[in-house]
Amino acid sequence: MLGRSPALAVPALAFLTVFFVVPLALLVAIGIFPVRGSTIVFDHADLRPYFRYLTDPFYLWVTARTFGMAAAVTLTCLLCGFPFAYLFTRARRFWQALLLSLVVSPILTGTVVRSYGWLVILGRRGLVNDALLRWGIIHAPLHLLFTMQGVIIALAQVMLPFMILPIVGVLARQSPYLHDAAFGLGASRAQVVRHVVLPLSLPGIFAGSALVFVLSFASFTTPALVGGGNFVILPTLIYQQTQQSLDWGILSAISMVLLGTSLLVVWVYSALARGLGLRWADRQ
Amino acid sequence: MRRYWLRVGDAATGVVLLVIGIATGVALLLPTLVVIIASFTNTAYLSFPPEGISLRWYRALLLSPEILRAGRVSLSVAGVATMGSLAMGLATAFPLVRGSFRGRDALLAFTLAPLMLPSVVLGIALLFFFGFLGIRLSFVTLVLSHILITFPYVTRTCTAALFHADPALEEAGVGLGASRWQTLCHVTLPLLLPGLTVGAGFAFIESFDNLALSIFVAGQRQETLPMRLFQLLITDIDPVVAAVATVLVAGSFLLLFLVTRLAGFRQLVSAFGGPQKPAR
Asked: How far apart are CA A77 and CA A55, in angstroms?
């Protein structure tokens, strides 16, 4: 058998150490030790950036807003993604292929392009306002762009595949006869969804929700474009701060909050999944 | 009476699921469709639906040196980064699947770790790192950063492909007198080709589409296409972006077509988020 030697992994290991571990360690360090120019002064620890972060109402408000946005996006994805995944598993083969390409193709389209699409849809002269005005439902254009609602809608669409694919992945592996058996035993459709489909899709729902939350909490492109310059969340805050002044201490503190949240969510997810005995590996 | 309500609830559940499901399907497609249609507008501002049809924004695209240069930068960065990721990912996948040494699981987790990190955090870390070492931001720093985010995907698809490749076929090759190198080129790599193709295609698109990392680590003269589009969009909703976007969509579908021809649709789906078979 070819390629059993661990030596083959050395280039990757070296690459990751130099360009991943070291930069990350430096990023942690500049939050704790003062930076002068582009060198770190290791003489004394200085935790002022963190204190500043924790006492500044603006930073706290941006953090809360980022949490709220990510939670709303996750919920929207779940509410839209679950019915779609359910229809997918009930569809015929031809339709399944079609629906699957519908889910996969947005990933290929690119985030900038799709965010741009939402600019066209939600803009003052966009699709939604145009239709609502024409049908006389509203008399003045709605402000959809550059608002929280607009960002949530656009970001939820960008994240949808990451919710749908795990749920479909779990449901597709279940026997289709479970569904028929439940019907045969006299369950209504609502009961089948509630007592059969929903519990079976829980592993996918957990995985998808964790993924969508982590990705949207750290997302930059869509909030920056659809939200505009005044819609500040943690990732766009980092970018803005690098454009204005390079205050490395506070940049490090913000990054640690982003990073810590991602790791926390992943940890909670795996603890939950383990607690429920829902690990992917067990269900293969 | 209860039966009646059950039936109403039943129908309502079905209708609600169907309506939300269809609406979701439409929402998945809508932004891309809107951009494509809007790109053919003949007005100087963006309107939807377009008032008249013209190709003026495609002409504007071809006459814009900044956009064309950004496109070239993006293509070369994505090309080089994909090559680098492919070489490193393939080499790493072998010991991950076939080796039996201590710390193999840790190695697997380590190779996937860059995916766990928000791009913006990675970007800011690399920005300081390059400054700390006194390295000027350039094409090289951009490519190295892109390898960092595409390499985990390639490793993942390569591990999955290698997991399904039967070592007995290689032993047969060796038994028939092939050298190790011949076995690798004529037996192992052809077996891995579908997985490699999907990994490469995905890495290319991931790199080509990246904005959040590029804006931190690209040099002044290495503006990538997403960076250019971003600049055009934060100042004004310029219709030329719709033309560029349409070209990009066409390009990625061409790539998708090529990859599915080479690798098959199932392979492609398994590469995205779906549950993976863990390496032994």
From this structure: 33
